């Protein structure tokens, strides 16, 4: 049996939600004490948005990924990571949330000069058949073994 038309009937009467326009500004920001502090964007809202809670899923970023977000007053600080390439990268931003339309007051792209970190000068010394000593390693450095070259 083959039907060409399907009719849906919903039990609830849906009410259309009024869409609120919210204006915001986007600026390049810097947080000196953070590891990714030089790759941050500050989103400043023109009006007070305390009743709106934005999550990382509400921010759509092009050419990078959001590592974490922080809320400070009516502003949000986005920490970016995993850029598309090294060098000059234009990062685009959109904000989406149901019932709201977010409008840019200024540009919607921010440029970053993404730099590659230097390869550490680490040396491995063998103490015995089952022990080694690493020199030139800082406290926060991560390392791995059995995955090819370091």
Automatic annotation (TrEMBL):
Superkingdom per UniProt: Bacteria
Protein name stated in the entry: Uncharacterized protein
Organism: Metamycoplasma alkalescens
Higher taxonomy: Bacteria, Bacillati, Mycoplasmatota, Mycoplasmoidales, Metamycoplasmataceae
